[in-house]
Structure formats: C-alpha cells, structure tokens
Amino acid sequence: MKVLWLFAHPEPASLNAALRDEGLRALRELGHEYVQSDLYEMKWDPIVREIASFDPDVVAEQEKISWADTLVVQFPLWWYGMPAILKGWFDRVFVKGFGYGLKDENGRVLRYGEGMLAGKRAMIVTTAGGRASSLGPRGVNGNLEQLLFPLQHGTFWYTGMAALPPFVVYSADRTDAAEFTAAASGLRERLARLETTEPIPYRAQNGGDYDSDLVLLPHLAAGRTDLDVHQR
Ligand code: FAD
C-alpha cells in the first residue's frame, strides 16, 4: 500500500513520536511504501490567508494525498480535537477543487461516500490523557468515537475516504514501558490489517437513506438523533 502518514506532535521525544517510529517501521517491514508529513518539523503554516489558494506548500501536500491510497492521521487529543496545526492542514489542503466540489452529470453533489478522494482509506491514530472509561459511551468526557465524528465523518467520509476505526491509546500521560510495548504492538497489528479492516459503516449521502433535504429517512434508526444514526 501507499501510505501518507500525517504527524502532528511538537516533540521528537514524545510518546507520539515513539509510536510514529514504530508505525513507520512496521509499514517498512510489511512492504508498504510511505511518505510522511511531520507538520511541526516541516513548520507547516496552518493559517488560511486566502480561501482555496493553491500555494506550492498546499499543492505538495495534495500530491502526497493523490499518490497515497491510505492516510494515517496521528495526533495527541488536545481539547477533544486535533492540534491547531493539523486542523490548519485540513483547512488549507482539503479545498474546493481538491478535497470536495465534485458533481455528477446530473449536478448532484458527490460527498459522504463519494467524492474526489473516494477509494482511499484513512485511519486516526491518537493518544488521550483520559482513561478509556471516561471516553466511553457514558463517560464524562464524551464518547471518543463520537468526538472524532467531525474528522472521520465530516472530513474523511465527506471527501469519499473510508474511515477505519481509530487506534487509540488511553491514559497516555501515565504510559510506562509495559504499556508502551502493548500500544506499539497494538498499532503494528492494526497496520498489518490496513487493507482488510472493515471501515466504519457510514451511510452514503446518495445511497437512498436520506431525503431531498439530506435528513435520514424516518424509518431508519427510528426515534434516535445521536451521531451513530449515520452508520448502517
Ligand atoms: P508524552 O507526554 O510524550 O508522554 C506521555 C507518557 O508516555 C510519559 O509518561 C512518558 O514517560 C511516556 N512515554 C513517552 N515515550 C515513551 C516511550 N518511548 N516508551 C515508554 N513510555 C513513553 N487529554 C484528553 O483526554 N482530552 C483532552 O481534551 C486533552 N486536551 C489536552 C490539551 C492540551 C493542550 C494538552 C497539552 C494535553 C491534552 N490532553 C487531553 C492530554 C493529551 O492527550 C496527552 O498529554 C497526550 O495524548 C500524551 O501524548 P504525548 O505524545 O504528548 O505524551
């Protein structure tokens, strides 16, 4: 496979950097090709100064995405989302004419399952300070699977990419050597199944599940309004 590994942590000696190194080693051993965008190391400029500007640094990132069939997006969970430098990468790189803006011959907008990046896969690798229970379905921090919805559904799936279930290290601030070994081994195992892992079964916008106002048909997930209604 051809993997673009996006990495957003400022410290080369961090837990995240050590996991990234393990991940890239695993990809090499599995015979996959990869390129990396280490955003802090690249001094990536996250600020949008002009909407949808195809600056050379943006085009270089778009070329990496076009080359790749899989994106791995790695970041520490900061304020229940991604670090600003990574958000700025998506804001500047996934612009109309590259990430979205495609229509079919009938003028129908192609997004959520269809789109410019359809056929590619994307997987989040993240670390969280919170423990797994506190980021679970009834945890005080909110369900991490749902906290990641804007990236997994609103960005990956919106542009056509299949979102693989995320790889998460919980209680990351208390990681000891044994926990690191377990996390690294879990990551290697997930990377070994990159090609075969079933994506999150999000519904396609144009697959018949939504009405003309883009509202889920009433008989599907009847009576529910949580974000999981958008999964089959
Ligand atoms: P590091 O600080 O680098 O390391 C964490 C631990 O792992 C340390 O104990 C270190 O000794 C150990 N370690 C590092 N490398 C290795 C190695 N190679 N082998 C063994 N052990 C190692 N958490 C939430 O849950 N929700 C939030 O909303 C949230 N918001 C945050 C906002 C900010 C601005 C910050 C700074 C933190 C936030 N956190 C939050 C916590 C954050 O998610 C964690 O601090 C982060 O995920 C830990 O990853 P790291 O790479 O920075 O870890």
Automatic annotation (TrEMBL):
Record-linked InterPro entries: Flavodoxin_fold, Flavoprotein-like_sf, NAD(P)H_dehydrogenase_qn
Keywords, ordered alphabetically: Oxidoreductase
Domain Flavodoxin-like fold positions: 1-190
Tagged with keyword Oxidoreductase: yes
Superkingdom of origin: Bacteria
One Pfam entry name: Flavodoxin_2
PANTHER family per the UniProt record, alphabetical: NAD P H OXIDOREDUCTASE-RELATED (PTHR10204), NAD(P)H DEHYDROGENASE [QUINONE] 1 ISOFORM 1 (PTHR10204:SF34)
Similarity remark: Belongs to the NAD(P)H dehydrogenase (quinone) family.
Protein name as annotated: NAD(P)H-dependent oxidoreductase
